[in-house]
YafY family transcriptional regulator
Amino acid sequence: MKLERLLSIIILLLNRRMVQAKELAERFEVSVRTIYRDVEVINRAGIPIITYQGTNGGIGLAEGYRLDRNVLTNDELAAIFTALRSISTSYGNKHHQGLMDKINSVVPPAYSDEFQQKTSRVLIDYSPWDGNDTLRPKLQLLKEAADGGLVTGFIYSDAHGEVSHRMVEPHRLILKGKQWYLQAYCLEKEQFRLFKLKRMKELEIATGQTFIHRELPAQASASSPSPSEQLRMTEFVLRFRAGDRHRAEEWFGIEELVPADDGCWLVRKAYREDEWLYSFLLGFGHHAEVLEPPHLREIIASRAEQIAKIYRSPSST
């Protein structure tokens, strides 16, 4: 990711007097233009990087500059290391391990044991239980396209089952709710859209088609619902039997459970009402009952009846 690359460039320049932009581009598998954009970002952060012209030229830190040791404390280095290792469970590449090795190299020897203990206490594993062999290639290709400003095409099946071919300008990868999304400018719709990676296939970078990164709109994010999405939020109440308390705790957390007079447990939540919500509620089977609102209860009941009808009918095979 970009932050990882910026940190790697800074650490590399601290250890080498000068390095060519082409070498950096090859090392991080991005374009030379991307490297120069990174240099501008680092300069704006207050770390002076100078570009030297000529045959023996390249990119280097300003003469006499040294990174203040207080810029990153030992605890901050440990936090960065832990975050990188966690991200690597779903989005790992060879540069992640390289950067972690570099962070290890700047840890004071006297702090080494404590550093190892702190970085081993927490691991956030983003990888799915069934593996991510199909997901990793998609992430790598889209990262390359976003970094290099390369137009990308793919076949996409939306939430309604409609299949279309999309040509987009990839801008950002987002991990939300255990799912990866691509935030991209759709050339057909002429606006930013979010695409779930699991719904993509036949990804390919368009030959000879590049783009200049656009300013991301405030609402084109999977991190929070837009005003229009908030209007489609439905508050509902679930009732779990006493013996199914553990199921409610697993999905909603202990704090969300409210005891009922009959020994059952109630959960009140608000989610966006769509096909995902219906499938989510049906997934609890007979362990949970929708009490409110009435229309949602009717929808779940109707779909449960349709499922029962399928299983009561003779199998067609």
About this structure: The chain has a mean pLDDT of 80. The first strand starts at residue 49 and ends at 52.
